[in-house]
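re: that chain from earlier
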Amino acid sequence: MLTRDLLRCRTAGGIARPSFVDPRDPQLLHFASQLIALYTENIGSKRADVESAAAQIVNAKRDLKLARGIQKILEDRCSYSSSDDCDYPALRRALFTRTAALFREAELPGSIEAFHERAIEGEEILARGVYADLPENERLTGMKKIFPSELLERYNTSLVQSLLLSSSELEAEIAEEDPAELRRVFKYLKFFRLLCRAELVPGKKEKNAPPRIRLKIDGPASILENSQKYGLQLASFFPALCRLKRWRIASEVKVQERSLKLKLDETSALKCHYANFGAYIPEEIRMFHDAFRKMETTWEIIDRVPYLRMKNNQLIFPDFSFRNSATGREFDLELFHPWHAGRIAERLDEIASDPESTLLIGVDRACVRGDDALQERIRAADGCFLFRNFPGVENVRKALDAREMRDASLL
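^ sequence. v structure.
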């Protein structure tokens, strides 16, 4: 992602217009190819040497901000060696103390090289470099492969992401025929744990047209705690929208302390680079699936629906769906993590007002810390429970059993 000093954006009439580049521009493709080749050929070199060589290519460009921005995107794909997990300053102090004592001896080694060998004798770590812990001495160990045109596409997407870091709210309207693509977008929302309200757009739908869904995602400017981290997650979510055939966004962002409107849609030709995200499963979810599968129960995790439709066209994206193989009953589970606390009471009200609801909720204790009344209300509701960090399979099984028993008693 780009830093503020590398952001290229025009403003007119209170609108922020990112200065996108043409990914097919021959000169820019040549420049991107040069940078990629330089980093690829210098794997194993010191960071300072790589940056010095790259500066010769970058500084030759007329638009330095653009050149440095493209370089920043490529740098983010690089990995550098980290120093050994030891106290280099303490090792250096000890080395300099021994060196001073050696220098005061009556008979010094005959040459600088011999003096160095004697001073460093027995030092396995410092023998590899007295200042190896400094950033400029880190070595380039690898770079994720990327094509020149892809690097330019990533640059364009990063311009938008950098603006969204200061967003107060992101409003998006999407339409997609493929349920799998919709499910993937909702999966991104859950993965980045964003505060989102979703609803079907009212009005007459065109024949054979997919339903339009409006997403209202809180931005970092509206979050009281960890706003910087939340802003990064919102910006990281944005490329997922670019996978869809029809999308548009509107947001209020800050550019040089000015509040501006950002408006974009699919005609911007931005590309999503999360090609393999659909196959990625976070470790905590993988562990939950494995543990639930091994547990002796008639409940099983299923792939049910991409979203649940509630009252007033509101939509909910469940984290998990379950089926009881013995009774055929199906339920959905929505998890509330930090940042989601404001929606918990509202969701409890919705469940209480709809006896046919299939929704269960689990709430991270961090959301309700200090609110004893809300904690008690969650414990008292059948199918609702508290957890810490991520729910355990036993808690989920108990919640499913409790909800099924309640529903059976109402029949």
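The chain has three domains: 88-137, 165-276, 283-410.
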